[in-house]
Amino acid sequence: MESSLFIKYGGFSRIYKVIEKFYDNILKSETLNAHFKHTNMERLIHHQTSFISSLMGGPDYISDEQLAQAHKNLGINLKDWQEMINILSLTFSEQGISEDDAKQVIAKLETKRDFIVCH
Amino acid sequence: MSLEQNNADYSVLNYLQLPVVVLSANEHKVVFQNNSFQLVAQHYLDASNNPTNRSLLQLIISKLLENDTDKLEVEINDASYRHIFRFTANVVGEHVIVEGEDITELKRNQFLFNRTNTLLEDYSKQMFELAHTDQLTNVPNRRALFAKFSQLQSKHEEFSCTVSLIDLDHFKRFNDSFGHDFGDQVLVTFAKHVKDSIDDTCYFARLGGEEFCLIQINIKDTFCFANTEKLLQTTKTIKLMTPDNSNIGMSFSAGVAVYGKDGISLDELLNNADKALYIAKENGRSRVVNFEGA
Prior knowledge:
heterodimer, A: mainly alpha, Globin-like, globular, B: alpha+beta, Beta-Lactamase, Alpha-Beta Plaits, 2 domains, five-stranded antiparallel beta sheet, five-stranded mixed beta sheet, 9 helices, about 25% strand, elongated
């Protein structure tokens, strides 16, 4: 099996905990928490764990088309995106993901921005 | 019975960590709610994912009791408080006792189990592919060939096939004259040529070295022989560029054995095809020989 950040950080179980903390932090954000008023957080955490795992070299999860489809009516703007990136960086740091590894994951996430942010 | 009396009866429920609420069976009026339920209900009211701002009690009454469902799952997300409860109702005399089980961990573990299971299945498929594929030519290997033969034999009652054992001519000379990389290129080119030339009625595998096997399934023997002959002719048209920039051709010798006549097991068929292959080589290579006529 190829070495990856997914393996390095303990696979789904560890990344799940990181994502749980990420959403705890998201819900504390005045900019972002309104987006999650009617959201089933459990399902969202499951999706996000699978998605971030794939960015960390875990199994493929979602195509760019599916990603765009899932976000098209959510009205996420650039300010929201930047806030989300900041919170994710903070969460990675809180959860013991090294700065270099966090940068690597966020750089991969940035390649998906156009499929998530509304234009 | 007064509410105070009921409270006295149920106050023991305050020792439980799980949220419990007791309602009258007919009118669904609250008789007792334990401390844990009150705490959970407060978090529910404060939660960001409570779309209607209605109370947990109202939700339980409308979804669980009035809809007469078995269970109700409620997710509560109040920033640092994230729990999922499964509420169930039991009628005890004139009362309905609703209790909530915290299934947050269960849900998490179910998800992790499912994802890990999928991951293991994917790895298992990859491992299977690796174990059954020749790394150089990317065609099935000897192990895969025997597994496929056995599967075909057991699956089809009127199974028939021919087995062509193919050996690339002068392969050692390619390796010795132009190096192993060129030898590998010969093998890859030949394997690709065969893959591109055959259809679903054939199964092609590398047995090892420069030896390959082509099984043609449920096709008349004479056609199979002709097909292998045709494959030889098209292989002879392939030109390879050697490291010293000259063109070089390739050919093969093959021995053919027929299922039933020349053997039943693959070992037996390969053994007899090998005898025919030996004759093909003895007679100058670049030819296909039937075991029957060998």
